[in-house]
Backbone:
C-alpha cells in the first residue's frame, strides 16, 4: 500500500513539473525570440516479483512475469526551436533570423552567449548592443554622423550621412548554429550558452551553409501557441487530480487495514 502512495506522489510531482513548464511558456508568450519547452517523462525502476520467462513448477515458461512499476519522473524538458512569428517594427536595428541560427553576444565576464532576440540598440559609443548592453560579436560601431543604417539579408551593415548618400560598409553580422540546439543551456535574459549536449558553435554568414537569412526592421516573436498550452494545462491538471485520487484511495485502504481487529 505504501508503494501506491509513493508511486502516485511521483506522478503528482511529475505533473507539477509539467505545469511549471507550461506556466513559463505562457508567461513568455510576448518575449522576443523565446522558444517554448516541452516536458518529457520516463518510468522509474520496477520491482520484479517474477522474471518474464521464468519456469513454473510444471517446467513451463511464464509468458509475462510479474513486474510492479514504482512511478514516474521528469526525464527532460526540451526546448522547441521552431520559427516564431515575425513582427514588423520598422526600427533599423531590429533584426530577425529567418531560419536557423543565433546572434553571438559577449557578456560582461567575457563569455560568448547566443540569442534569437535581435532587438539591438546603440550604446553611448555607437556600438551595437542588445537590450542588456551586451555587445554583438563581431563588434560593429555606428558613426555619430550616420543618418541611416542598413542591414541587408546577408548581414552586411552600412550607413549613410547627410554629406554622403553612398552606403559605407561598417561591419558584418554573423550567425551561429549548433548540431543540437535543444542541448543549449538557458541563462535567462534571452541568452543561451553551449553545453556538451549542444556541440560546438558553427559560425557563418547569414544564408550560407543552411543558416537563416536576416530581415531588418522585424523581430521574431515567441513560438508559444496559447491554445496548445491551455489544452496541455487542462490535461496536466486532470492527470494531477487522478494521481491525487490514487493517494486518497491508498490512504483509505491503509485506514481499513488499521481498523482490523
Residues:
Amino acid at each position: 500500500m505504501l508503494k501506491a502512495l509513493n508511486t502516485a506522489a511521483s506522478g503528482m510531482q511529475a505533473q507539477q513539473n509539467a505545469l511549471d513548464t507550461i506556466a513559463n511558456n505562457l508567461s513568455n508568450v510576448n518575449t522576443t525570440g523565446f522558444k517554448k519547452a516541452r516536458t518529457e517523462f520516463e518510468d522509474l525502476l520496477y520491482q520484479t516479483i517474477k522474471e518474464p520467462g521464468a519456469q513454473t513448477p510444471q517446467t513451463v515458461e511464464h509468458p509475462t512475469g510479474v513486474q510492479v512499476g514504482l512511478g514516474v519522473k521528469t526525464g527532460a524538458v526540451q526546448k522547441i526551436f521552431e520559427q516564431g512569428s515575425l513582427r514588423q517594427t520598422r526600427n533599423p536595428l531590429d533584426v530577425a533570423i529567418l531560419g536557423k541560427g543565433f546572434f553571438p553576444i559577449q557578456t560582461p565576464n567575457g563569455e560568448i552567449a547566443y540569442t534569437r532576440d535581435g532587438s539591438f540598440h546603440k550604446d553611448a559609443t555607437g556600438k551595437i548592443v542588445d537590450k542588456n548592453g551586451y555587445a554583438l560579436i563581431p563588434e560593429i560601431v555606428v558613426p555619430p554622423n550616420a543618418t541611416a543604417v542598413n542591414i541587408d539579408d546577408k548581414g552586411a551593415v552600412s550607413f549613410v550621412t547627410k554629406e554622403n548618400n553612398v552606403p559605407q560598409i561598417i561591419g558584418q553580422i554573423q550567425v551561429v548554429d549548433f548540431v543540437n540546439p535543444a542541448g543549449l543551456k538557458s541563462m535567462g535574459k534571452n541568452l543561451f550558452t553551449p553545453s556538451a549536449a549542444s556541440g560546438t558553435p558553427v559560425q557563418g554568414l547569414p544564408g550560407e551553409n543552411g543558416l537563416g537569412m536576416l530581415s531588418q526592421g522585424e523581430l521574431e516573436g515567441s513560438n508559444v501557441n496559447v491554445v496548445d498550452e491551455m489544452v496541455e494545462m487542462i490535461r496536466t491538471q486532470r492527470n494531477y487530480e487522478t494521481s491525487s485520487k490514487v493517494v486518497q484511495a491508498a490512504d483509505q485502504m491503509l485506514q481499513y487495514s488499521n481498523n482490523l481487529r
The longest helix spans residues 226-258. DSSP finds two helices and 20 strands in the chain. The longest strand covers residues 72-79. The chain has a mean pLDDT of 92.
